Amino acid sequence: MGPMNLMSMSTSDLNVFLDSFDHVFSDCDGVIWAKKPLPGSGEFFERMQQLGKTVHFVSNNSMRTQENYENLFAAANISQGFEKLTIPSTAIAEYLKAINFSKTVFCVTCPETMNVLQSYGFTCKYGPEVGLDLYTNYNKYLEDDTEVGAVVFDSDFNVNLPKMYQAITYLTRPDVLFISGATDRHVPLIPGRVLLGTGIFTDIVSEEANRKPTQLAKPGKLFGEFAMKRAGVTDPSRVLFIGDMIEQDIGLGKATGFKTLLVLTNNTYEDMKAHKSLKPDFYADSLGSLVPVLNKVCLNGNYDG
Q1: pLDDT tens, position by position, 110-123
Q2: Residue 211, class by beta-carbon neighbours within 10 Å (0-12 exposed, 13-18 middle, 19+ buried)?
Q3: 125: part of which helix (H) or strand (E)?
Q4: pLDDT tier at 299 (50, 70, 90 boundaries)?
Q5: How many CB atoms lie within 10 A of CB 295?
Q6: With CB atoms 3.0 to 4.6 Å apart as the test, which of 129, 141, 170, 232 could cross-link to 162 if both were Cys?
Q7: Among 196, 193, 171, which Cα is nearest to 185's?
Q8: Residue 209 burial (CB count, 10 A)
């Protein structure tokens, strides 16, 4: 059976759908907001809570500050959104803390991820921002630093060859941890255009170092399980995961055992149908498009759950 269109469901089928989960986990960028809140997104989560569902948020975007996230959630009329949000920087810091990591972290990350790691007490190494003029002098970046015990990639849009050389050098030591945050190979920067993301550089280093990273972002199962733990959820089959990206969002849902809902804000119906391996369980145009459907249940008292 292919993905089911929630907007065309009968009331009885909608009740079956609503009975199939207790918790909603949702992506943020492209689902709740673009540059500003997408119409109806806040009202959708309000309806979910009225129906007795818990609501949590999961994003690959560690680049935003807490203040920026709080402002976006507030603009969408979502209360305590940041408190219910799981992002890679937090997952990485908690993971290192759990294993009592005490060495230096080499960060090929956005500044905010490094700030989070430092707030947990970890020593971070970063850079260089600009390489040497002569390529023949790049052997400088092949010098090891035995204090480095982990290499972390997470949304560094200033990634360059010197950083990649250093990362590969450190990863030649088997005891050095290799951790990946956001792995997005493509990002939706403007409507209708999906462009290259930073995940391609993680893949290059992984191939060159012959090392697979511990994946603490979508679509990694470990990240999904971390989000569940933070939310106090134990049964993945009772979670509905909502996203707008097939590889990252539907990939995470399938890896973790969630039910999945794709909103077609950055993919077309044809894109969804054409994907060779990943198919959502459900789809809709947007969260706002589902509000009238849910209103029939919430306002008319048709829900039996």
Answers
A1: 999 999 999 999 99
A2: middle
A3: strand 123-126
A4: low
A5: 12
A6: 141
A7: 196
A8: 19
Give 150's strand partners.
Answer: 105, 177
pLDDT at site 298? 67
Judge contact between 194 and 169, C-beta under 8 A: no
User: What are the pLDDT digits (tens) for 184-236?
Assistant: 887 776 766 767 888 999 999 999 999 999 999 999 999 999 999 999 999 99
What is the DSSP pairing of strand 186-190 with strand 193-196? Answer: antiparallel
Place of tokens 């970890």: 122
For 2-24, write each residue's pLDDT tens digit. Answer: 799 999 988 889 999 999 999 99
Q: Which of 106, 108, 103, 107 is closest to 121 using CA atoms?
A: 103
The b-or-e profile of 253-276 (16+ CB within 10 A means b, else e) is bbbbbbbbbbbbbbbeeeebeeee
